[in-house]
Write a structure and sequence with these properties.
CATH architecture of the largest domain: Alpha-Beta Barrel
Distance between the termini: 42 Å
CATH class of the largest domain: Alpha Beta
Structural class: alpha+beta
Oligomer: single chain
Number of helices: 7
Strand content: 25-35%
CATH superfamily of the largest domain: D-amino Acid Aminotransferase, subunit A, domain 2
Radius of gyration: 19 Å
Largest sheet: 9 strands, mixed
CATH topology of the largest domain: D-amino Acid Aminotransferase, Chain A, domain 2
Number of domains: 2
Length: about 300
């Protein structure tokens, strides 16, 4: 794999495009030292970015939670992203926007640091191998837990919240697993390191309440697609012991899409019809032009304030 600082192409940085190798950040940037950085992960399919508006609205919300404002509107970021995709000649790609406090101030306080914004996009194959997608991945329960809502800005997609995800995934991979299953601070099931979790129990779809981790855009998409197909969805707190009742398990996210799980610790699962149905439905949904999608104009977050 090419290193990410040595590639051809362009990066959108603070309102203009620069050569990829020049898309750098100064060492004394607040975002690097104090994790005052928020980001998104979007996917382009056939030249269309799935739920782009929701991603950029969430980027703005994440910044507000971290007490700063992004100096570009959602619409401006959407246009910049589409222009960048076109200029790079990409149809199927991963898109990474980020906003962070810059180098105007160094110290815990960062009100005068200034805000930088960048967007990069590149070709993105499947997050997991075709073999893993067919048979399912293996998860190991992490020793790290998702923090309580009063200890971290858990509803932001912020860089600092992913430190324990990196540690968890590294340990899982060192032990021969593909990813890590994280519990919340109370000991309930939470999510994988970068994807939400679903269990099929008695034909119904169960998923942890997203009260200490992101209520993902893919998560809400899968819930909507399931309900469209008459599959009952139950959002609740789930204990690790209930994994023994699950007939199927899968994770979902922008990068992971819908990925079956075949093992968690010493428990085994077989990808079944619910997982296959939703994986197919999601794959079809994201590859349609937005106006042809069954969820076009659909509010994924009907209960949001």
């Amino acid at each position: 794999m090419l290193p990410f600082d040595d590639r051809d192409g362009k990066i959108w940085l603070n309102g203009t495009t620069v050569p990829w190798r020049e898309g750098s950040v100064h060492f004394l940037s607040h975002g690097l030292h104090y994790a005052s950085l928020v980001f998104e992960g979007c996917r382009a399919y056939n030249g269309y970015i799935f739920r782009m508006r929701e991603h950029y609205e969430r980027l703005h919300k994440s910044a507000q939670i971290l007490d700063f404002e992004i100096p570009y509107s959602v619409e401006a970021l959407e246009k910049a992203t589409l222009d960048l995709l076109q200029s790079e000649g990409l149809k199927d790609a991963y898109v990474r926007p980020a906003a962070w406090r810059g180098s105007g101030q160094m110290g815990v306080s960062g009100q005068k640091a200034g805000i930088s914004v960048a967007i990069a996009c590149w070709e993105w194959p499947s997050y997991f191998s075709p073999e893993d997608l067919a048979r399912g991945i293996r998860l190991k329960t992490s020793a790290w837990r998702r923090p309580a809502p009063d200890t971290a800005p858990v509803q932001s997609k912020a860089a600092g919240l992913y430190m324990i995800c990196t540690l968890s995934k590294h340990q899982a991979e060192a032990d021969g697993y593909d990813d890590s299953l994280m519990l919340d601070w109370r000991g309930f099931l939470a999510e994988a390191t970068g994807a939400n979790l679903f269990l099929v129990i008695d034909g119904k779809l169960h998923t942890p309440i997203a009260d200490c981790f992101l209520d993902g855009i893919t998560r809400r998409t899968v819930i909507a697609l399931a309900r469209q197909r008459g599959i009952e969805v139950i959002e609740r707190r789930i204990t690790p012991e209930e994994l023994t009742n699950a007939e199927e398990v899968f994770i979902c996210g922008t990068a992971a899409e819908v990925t079956p799980v075949r093992q968690i610790d010493d428990l085994s699962f077989t990808p079944g019809e619910v997982t296959k149905t939703l994986a197919t439905a999601y794959a079809e949904e994201v590859r349609l032009p937005p106006e042809d999608q069954t969820l076009f104009g659909h509010n994924l977050y009907p209960n949001a304030a």
